[in-house]
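__Record contents__

***
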Amino acid sequence: MKKIITLFVLWFSVCAYSQETLNTMFYNVFKFPNSFPVNREVILRDILDDYKPDLFMICELATENAANLILNTSLQNQTDPYARAVFVPDLSKPSDPLQTMVFYNQRKLTLVNQQTLATVYRDINHYSFKVNVDSQNPIYLEVFVAHLKSSTGPANRQMRYDMVEAVTQQLQNLTQPDTYVLFAGDFNFYNSSEIGYQKILDPTNAIKLIDPLNAPGSWHDNASFNYLHTQSTRVSNAGFGGGANAGASGGLDDRFDFIMMSENFNTSTRFSYVNGSYQAYGNNGNCFDKDVKDVNCTGVFSQTLRDNLYNMSDHLPVVMQFQINEPLAIKSFEKEPLMWFESSNITDNEIMIGVDTSKFNAQNNQLFVYNIMGQLIKTVAVNNQSNIVISIQNLSGGMYFVKSNGSATVLKFIKK
């Protein structure tokens, strides 16, 4: 009997160890950090402390410094180390500096690549992750983050459709086995019959995407869908700076924010959607056309959280969870930098990068140079050299990035 109990305890311990939850969140952070109130990075910190996202996807990020503010302040209380993607200015609409970004838990995810999809209106960013499972059989997670064209009318609906099509075309290029896809963003859809929404769900897409809520209908100003509304958190935008910087008003009555997922999350035994975990975060389902902080909108989401959401943005985040049904690999995180510039990072000839050779090995023995579109343009071997000279004579003028698969560190240089 003692042997059976011991075996049961061991079996239970292995099973418990082999399961991890991946918390995901998409949030339109509304012209961060430029809109009122001040110190929104602290308000955002309190929101993130409440949910603890492992993958935090956002839109309406104003600058690279704003991305660092979120990483170093808003995520500062998270237990695990976090990193972010490279900030790339919008190329489709240079007049609009607002961009998308992802932040991620390095214990659970590794960012292996990113690229920009130019569209008819603004960029959509594509981020390629590996889930850090302790297995020779990788789990690939492809993440698309978008901010589709706003407003009603046929021209705007067509523009949203065209932007979605840039993603569905990119799905054809995802040929790795066991690929999982998330498509998140402020989609500005008013109902499920919109052509852009239907394009996302088109069963003939190279990878089939589904809406986890499966709630077709006319969402706009419809109390029947009050539990999924994400905009606006405010009946009035008075006190938030006035004009375009004050955000939307009118109370919660639109479903603009989404996380779509590939169908295999519902069938996989390795990486699966946690049923019922998709939520409009902070929406207690009884706040139709009200402030999200209204004292009568009580429920599972606290008054303190709803006050913070009201002040942070005119949108609510959307969240969902996934189960990783395999143990994670044990990762060590660098206390000292993996690489740094030994030369100026503004030049027309060559750059010299110093590296800590002790952190490179046979599997991670290269530096990768990306252009501003996120395209890989040069691979340079380290070969146990502490100083790596990279010729950039043949590159066009502009901004470039250097990265290694073994680190979250990204170096930026400019070819004159």
About this structure: The radius of gyration is 22 Å. The CA atoms of residues 112 and 405 lie 6 Å apart. The domain at 15-324 is CATH 3.60.10.10 (Deoxyribonuclease I; Chain A).
